[in-house]
Amino acid sequence: xxxxxxxxxxxxxxxxxxxxxxxxxxxxxxxxxxxxxxxxxxxxxxxxxxxxxxxxxxxxxxxxxxxxxxxxxxxxxxxxxxxxxxxxxxxxxxxxxxxxxxxxxxxxxxxxxxxxxxxxxxxxxxxxxxxxxxxxxxxxxxxxxxxxxxxxxxxxxxxxxxxxxxxxxxxxxxxxxxxxxxxxxxxxxxxxxxxxxxxxxxxxxxxxxxxxxxxxxxxxxxxxxxxxxxxxxxxxxxxxxxxxxxxxxxxxxxxxxxxxxxxxxxxxxxxxxxxxxxxxxxxxxxxxxxxxxxxxxxxxxxxxxxxxxxxxxxxxxxxxxxxxxxxxxxxxxxxxxxxxxxxxxxxxxxxxxxxxxxxxxxxxxxxxxxxxxxxxxxxxxxxxxxxxxxxxxxxxxxxxxxxxxxxxxxxxxxxxxxxxxxxxxxxxxxxxxxxxxxxxxxxxxxxxxxxxxxxxxxxxxxxxxxxxxxxxxxxxxxxxxxxxxxxxxxxxxxxxxxxxxxxxxxxxxxxxxxxxxxxxxxxxxxxxxxxxxxxxxxxxxxxxxxxxxxxxxxxxxxxxxxxxxxxxxxxxxxxxxxxxxxxxxxxxxxxxxxxxxxxxxxxxxxxxxxxxxxxxxxxxxxxxxxxxxxxxxxxxxxx
Length: 639
Hints:
Elements: H1 2-31, H2 35-48, H3 53-79, H4 83-96, H5 101-129, H6 132-145, H7 150-163, H8 172-178, E1 181-190, H9 191-202, E2 205-208, E3 217-226, H10 227-237, E4 240-246, E5 249-254, H11 257-263, E6 267-272, H12 278-289, E7 293-297, E8 302-307, H13 309-322, E9 328-349, E10 353-356, H14 367-371, E11 378-381, E12 385-399, E13 402-406, E14 411-426, E15 432-451, E16 456-473, E17 479-495, E18 500-516, E19 531-552, H15 559-562, H16 609-612
Parallel strand pairs: 2-5
Antiparallel strand pairs: 1-3, 4-5, 6-8, 7-8, 9-12, 9-13, 9-19, 10-11, 14-15, 15-16, 16-17, 18-19
């Protein structure tokens, strides 16, 4: 038993020596700048001696210093777009601290950004191939996760310029068919006739609701116009609406409130706002799009919209324009207070009172006492004093605060003290209670900046200088303060980096006083021996210098981005009803072949002119084959 105990003690001693050796080696390596090797030695010391608080504390402190250094390098690399380097640094942090939530979140952010970059590259390739809707879908995914992605924003501008309308974006073949140009000439023709001819030429199927009046008459003349524009014009003039069913089938129904509620698709879109408050954004959305189904979460600054796809796309554009960071400005304020004091007191202060002293304590002075008065019975007050005093003092107060403030937000600087003010309250029962409040004394500067687009900063500046002039004690013993104050308020506009000076707040006090012996003090020359003269000169000057430096100005959108179509009074949409030319339309598909119909030839309607109301012509232009393939035509348009 004794041998086992001795062996255990010996083993513990060896372990302690090993831990001490690793600890000392780790401290030495850290002092030499070999951080990683030093951390390994300290970690080994902790493993060998888990209960040693000194070893554990030294290891944690050194590890935290190393993690902070790695975070600084990783954040800088992430900000500059060096994602590979940043990811390596964040992984190094996780090796030191596997549960570090910030490093894990940063790695997830890098992964998302890499995915977004890949999507942006794919969108650029799709745009070059003419697959505009595929590019749009990828870019919308990127911008939904990262609204400030510059490459995605630039490509989205190109997509908007090339594509115009976005009907059928979720069905690529249908979107291609919509872009096919045709020439139509119908005068007072039946709806069934027009859609039958459009179906035979485009390869699209049309399913009609039972309430659609297919015998109603429409007139349209369009030359070399995309099918999407012709279809929209027919639907609008015929008070109809459409619903996309698949790649080549559309449902046509009356545009009545009942049918719209039954057929019209609604989408739900979530907007995580980065700069604008959700309650402000919802007011903008409701006033611009008349959207009723909007929910906001103020904690997450989240807005959820439920509306038609056209209205949601309009909301996306409104959010992109309005959700921008506020301007910020750095105010460099320099306050100088110079105070000069000159005090001189020369002369003799003679007694001003003579008092007859009573013979004994409590005795009353009588006329008999006055007859026997002597110099020993007369007292003087105050005692004679020879004053030879000259005081000179210079004091300066310098404050140089730097304040970063948002646009149209107030910033305040106070340099001084808070003086207590006691207020007494007496109740009807005679109970007295006291409350203490505080007032600011010293230098106070209030600034409210406004950043303008031209790089200038307007500011409302208020300066107040206050000090305690006197202390007064009331009858009940409460101490109150008499304050002196100087105020200046101005509005100025400075350029970025320009310094504005507010000066001239000067207080110049020159006080002279003399205490003289009547008659003797007024004599020339020797009168100075019978007087006491006091000269007090105090001069204070306040100078305020303020320099604005714009940290971030308004990110104003381009003219094209700031102006877009907003729909009609009754319908919110981001696309206008128009008939466009086929010139410049991207990615046009080939015209599908039809039995008995050759591309580029005119076709007459199967109905007679009396039934159709006039001649009908569909003349598609010969188009290059982009490799999309034709759409197999239906046997007949469904009804």
